[in-house]
Design brief:
The protein is of the alpha/beta class. It has one domain: 3-Layer(aba) Sandwich (Aminopeptidase), CATH 3.40.630. Helix content is about 40%, strand content about 20%. The protein has 7 helices and 10 strands. Strands 1-5-2-7-10-8-9 form a 7-stranded mixed sheet, sandwiched between helices. Strands 4-3-6 form a 3-stranded mixed sheet, with no helix packed on it. α4 links the parallel β8 and β9. α2 crosses α7 and α4 runs antiparallel to α7. The longest helix has 19 residues. The radius of gyration is 16 Å and the shape is globular. The chain starts with a helix and ends with a helix. The N terminus is likely disordered.
Length: about 220
């Protein structure tokens, strides 16, 4: 009964008005088979009339957080599909913008989707920014005890990328508060830092970050 409900819910999510896209791998490995992950590339939200609502940070060189998050989210989704998981993207290349009228409610809706689907985990992908150009490194936030293992795994897998760490602690954010399933918000680096931004703009490095996130998810949930 649960399987039938989940199938129907996923089919609904793939066509909902907020542009959620469901993708899965037909010939994937079994390690994450049956798991459902909601991958949330942060920001990328517009008002119904098309004006920006939640665009995220933009670095001094023009690097856009919402675009980096989208690329890494798509790369992560591809890796998860290849491992047998079903993936719901809150934004995608096909539907790059969400439509909403309230930024905080939209953020909560992203995590609420993971709750409705009974997802294995929710992963929000962001980039950081600061008025202090020397600020750099990754940040990982979570809130509930069921998210600690995933947060620790993400921390361990991002460490070899040598970006440094800006923050690692529980934090009450819209998505971490709303999510009842294991949930983390990951800041991939600072678009305001010259070194971080150069890496974040490179497709090869975006794939490395996606691989690190995938490895952390597999470390936590793979069977």
């Amino acid at each position: 009964m649960k399987s039938r409900w989940l199938t129907g819910a996923l089919r609904f999510a793939s066509t909902c008005a907020f542009g959620v896209v469901l993708q899965s791998g037909a010939s994937a490995a079994a390690s994450l088979r049956g798991d459902v992950f909601v991958v949330d590339p942060g920001h990328g939200t517009k008002f119904p009339d098309g004006t920006p609502l939640n665009v995220g940070a933009v670095g001094p060189g023009g690097l856009q957080e919402e675009q980096v998050a989208l690329e890494v989210g798509e790369d992560l989704a591809a890796l998860l599909r290849a491992a047998g998981a079903k993936v719901v993207l809150t934004r995608s290349h096909a539907v790059p913008f969400r439509i909403a009228t309230d930024k905080r409610l939209d953020n909560r809706a992203r995590a609420a989707l993971a709750n409705r689907l009974g997802a294995t985990a929710f992963v929000a992908i962001h980039c950081d920014s600061s008025l202090e150009p020397s600020a750099h490194g990754t940040s990982i936030f979570w809130l509930r005890p069921n998210s600690v293992s995933l947060a620790n795994a993400v921390r361990a897998r991002l460490r070899p990328l040598d970006l440094g760490e800006a923050a690692f602690h529980a934090r009450d954010l819209a998505v971490t508060s709303e999510a009842r399933v294991p949930a983390v918000l990951v800041e991939l680096g600072f678009v305001s830092n010259r070194h971080d931004a150069a890496l974040l703009a490179a497709p090869a490095f975006q794939k490395r970050e996606a691989q690190a996130l995938f490895n952390a998810i597999a470390d936590t949930f793979a069977r």
